[in-house]
Design brief:
single chain; mainly alpha; two-stranded antiparallel ribbon; 4% strand
C-alpha cells in the first residue's frame, strides 16, 4: 500500500519535515495538525464541559469564529495543553507518585491533588492515575 504522504524524501523536499540531526526532525505546524486531526478527533471529548472550562472558546463559538469546542480542541486546544474532559485524579496515588505536589499542598500552594492537576499537572504531563490514557 502506498504511503499517503509520499516518501520521506518528498516530505523533506516539501519542507514538511526538516532534519535537525541524526535522530530529530522539526515538523511544519500545519502538517502536524493535519496528521494529528484524526487521532485527536477520536479522543473522548465533553463539549459542554470544555466550553464551561474555557470561556474564551465559548465566546469564539458564540461569535462564529470557530464552529465548536471540539473543532477548537482538534485545531488548537490540544496544542495549548487544554483538557478535553474533566479528569478525576486518584488523590492517594497522585500524592504518592508526585511528592513535590504533596509538599506543595502542605505548604498551602494547592488545596488538593485535583486542584494541582487541573491548574498545572495536566499541562506538565503528569498522570492523574496509574495507566492513564485518552
Amino acid at each position: 500500500m502506498a504511503d499517503p504522504f509520499g516518501t520521506m524524501a518528498a516530505l523533506k523536499n516539501q519542507g514538511l519535515l526538516i532534519p535537525e540531526n541524526n535522530t530529530h526532525f522539526r515538523i511544519e505546524r500545519n502538517f502536524l495538525i493535519s496528521i494529528m486531526a484524526k487521532r485527536l478527533a477520536s479522543i473522548k471529548f465533553d463539549e459542554a464541559w470544555y466550553l464551561s472550562k474555557y470561556p474564551d472558546v465559548k465566546d469564539a463559538v458564540r461569535r462564529g469564529i470557530i464552529a465548536s469546542g471540539r473543532e477548537h480542541y482538534v485545531a488548537h486546544g490540544f496544542y495549548e495543553h487544554r483538557m478535553p474532559v474533566s479528569i478525576q485524579v486518584n488523590e492517594k496515588w497522585y500524592l504518592e507518585s508526585y511528592p513535590d505536589i504533596a509538599e506543595a499542598i502542605r505548604s498551602g500552594i494547592y488545596k488538593s491533588a485535583q486542584a494541582h492537576f487541573d491548574q498545572a499537572g495536566f499541562r506538565e504531563g503528569r498522570l492523574p492515575f496509574p495507566n492513564f490514557q485518552f
